[in-house]
Structures are given as C-alpha cells and as structure tokens.
Amino acid sequence: MKILYLDCGMGAAGDMLAAALLELLPDPEGFLDQFRALGLPGVEIRLEKAVKCGIAGSHLAVSVHGEEEVCLDDSDCACQTLHDHVQTRSHKIEHDHTHSHEHAHDHTHSHDHEHAHEHHHTHSSLNDIAQLVNGLNLPEKVRLDVLAVYRQIAEAEAKAHDTTVELVHFHEVGAMDAVADITLVCMLLDRLAPDEILASPVRVGFGQVRCAHGVLPVPAPAAAFLLRDVPVYAGDIRGELCTPTGAALLKQFVDRFCEMPVLKVRTIGYGCGMKDFPAANCVRAILGDSDEGQDRASLLSCNLDDMTGEELGFAMERLLNAGALDVWTSPVGMKKSRPGVLLSLLCPVNDADEFAALLFRYTSTLGVRETVVRRRMLERDFESLDTPYGAVKKKRASGFGTRRWKYEFEDLAAVARKENISLREAAALLDGKNPD
C-alpha cells in the first residue's frame, strides 16, 4: 500500500501542507503551472526555498491582486493575525451584512491589527466561493473535495460566531488565499493518490492571538471546532500552530491519526511557515510503502444463541451489502450449555464503528468484540477474455513467490448453464481441453 504520512508536530496550515506535498513531486513547478492555468482571479503563486532550524524546505507564497500576507514580530504573541471574525446585526462597524475574515495561514502570517481595511474591501459568501470553484476546470472528485473543505470552514466559523453558514462572508484576500491553498492541496492529493493518509497528533500551540476585535484563545474557536475527535496537544510553543484551513484539510483527508507506521520511504517533503520558532516550523510529508501484501483490518465478532437461521442470513446479507470485507459464522458452545453461533466480519479499521452499529441493528447481540488484525494478501487483478462462449473474466493473483489464476465464478457458471455442463467441464472448455 502507498501511504502518505503527515507529521503535524508543528501544527498545520494550508500553505504548509501544499508546499510539503509539492516537494513530493519530481516536477513541482510543472504542477504549479497546471494550477496557474486554472485562472483563479487575481491569484499569483510561487514556491520559494526556505530553511527552518537548519532544515531545507519550501514555502508557498500566495498573493491576491498583488497583496501578500506577511508576518510581523510582536511581543504579545508568537503569531498575531487578523483572525476570522463575524460581524452580526447587533455588532455593526462599517457594514450591514455579516462577514468573516478568513486567513488560511494564520500561524505563518501577521498584520497590523489596527488597519482600516485598506486593501480590496470586498467579501465572498460560501455560495460565491462555490460558484467560483464550480467554474474551474477541475476533475469532479477534486472539485467536490474543495467544496467540502471550504464548507467545513464556513460551518466552523458559523458555529464559533453563533450565526449561519449563509451569513458568513469571507474577505476577498483571505478567501482567495484559502481557495488557492485548498484547491492546490486537493489537486496534489489526487495526483499522489495514496491508498491511505495518516497523520500524527496535531500540536496546536497555546496562549492567545490578537485580532481586530479582541483577543482569542489558541487554538482559535473555528480551528478548535474543526479539530473535534482529532488527537491534539498544546506543546511548549506559545502561538497559533494549526489554522482553520489546516484543520479542515486534515479532517477531510486523514484516515487515521497515529504514530508513523513501518514504511519503506519513497520521498519526503517539508512545507515551511514564515514564522521562526525554537522548533522547525514545518509540516513534513512522507510518502512510502507498507510491507508488500500487508493490510490492517478490524475483526468484529459476537456470540448469538437466540436468532433464527433466516435472521442470521439476513444480517449477513446486510453486512456484506454495506461493504464488509468478509462475513462468516462458526458453531460455538455458549454458557448454560447452549449451542450458538459466532458471527464474525472483517472491515476497514476506519469503518469499525459503522459496522459495530450494523451488528447491533441486525442481530440480537448486546456486545461486539473488536481486534485489529494484519492481513497478508496476494496482489489481484482481472483480465477479460473473449471466448466462443462470451466474455469471461480471469482473476489473477501473485506475490510471496506464488502465482495463480481462476475464472470468475459468475462467468464460469454462465457458460456451464448455457452448455448444460458442470463447472469443471466449463473450465475445461474455456481452456480448450476436451471435457471428457
């Protein structure tokens, strides 16, 4: 399996994730040219060399209408930024509409927070962002990913400021900056196509961050909302390390948060932020392979002694239709000398909760056991054959010094029914042998 592991020991931001993933490609500039061809209005993007605590990496610089967010030193906090804020009807300053200023790289940039909105002062709603993204020449999957990430941010902002998604508006520079980062990350992940994306627990920093209308705790409310159910820790660095955009991207794409597994590393990328800290301010992306033929799965099981055969068969059917990797039963002896059935299923680790819920729904069990198992599997593929008896698929498997193949059962059975012969005779026909 091809694994992408994201080391978020210094948090995550959209620009840092994008820069780290770009470093995994053999031709990052060529990929950026593809991104530039999308024609995001007013957006200019470049990849710059950067060094953090002696580690060489890259920084992604994004400017909108010539404006680029910059980081200024400030004695009050490690990273001061004009943060996401919503202006409601009961808190008017200059406008009559609700709006939020979203800056995608909060811990890498900083502003003079008493500025009077001297740059382009236009705002975009989530609907405006959706119309923009829908107009880009993107693969369907990438387009849907971009919209899903941005909606997560809008929902987090709405929750943080007790308003609705429809009333959240993003400042033009921050909105376009975030759209660029999010779109680039989604495109990169589509290009890299890992089988699984893993990430470390996320360091979020601690302290406070000053915004235009007050002081916010770290992590900021929107980021904290997005990081629900994600393992996070403050660490010993004062400042904002995980931004709302970074948090939304992690929630959208990361399959599991865990320590780095055993990998055969292909390549490593470092995406650097602008701010300097005692630790290297970067996201590290590691692309590698797990051991050949190995995979992890959850083995769920429960003992049953009060279900009919029809009920068990129906439950097994529903579990397989839901995507279980395998479902089977075994006879067992239970307490009070009752004969029973052990119902077992294999499913992806990340889907264990979903399948446990299905077991409770379709069986009479009061408890489900889970064990994470490692499977060793042969590589499998299919070959379609044109035969005198119609199209027939051949299933091939190889690995661990073994090669084997067989005809797909349904296709083989169709030939046997058509010729009114046994499965063995049908296989001999397809092999060109005399069934006798």
Strand order of the largest sheet: 12-7-1-14-13
Q: What share of residues is helical?
A: 25-40%
How many DSSP helices?
11
Unreliable sequence segments: 70-121
Structural class: alpha+beta
Q: Could you describe the largest sheet, including whether it forms a barrel?
A: 5 strands, mixed
> What is the molecular shape?
globular
Radius of gyration: 27 Å
Question: What is the mean pLDDT?
Answer: 83
The total count of strands amounts to 21
What is the strand content? 25-35%
Identify the quaternary structure here: single chain
Measured distance between first and last alpha carbons: 44 Å
Describe this structure in words.
The protein is α+β, with helices and mostly antiparallel strands and 436 residues long. The protein is 29% helix and 30% strand. It has helices at 14-22, 28-36, 126-134, 140-160, 172-192, 221-226, 244-253, 309-321, 352-362, 409-419, 423-430, and strands at residues 2-7, 43-52, 55-64, 67-68, 123-125, 169-171, 196-199, 202-203, 208-211, 214-217, 232-233, 256-257, 264-272, 282-289, 294-304, 326-333, 339-347, 369-376, 379-387, 390-399, 402-407. Strands 12-7-1-14-13 form a five-stranded mixed β-sheet. A hairpin with a 2-residue loop joins β19 (379-387) and β20 (390-399). It is globular and about 75 Å long. The relative contact order is 0.15. Residues 70-121 have low confidence and may be disordered.
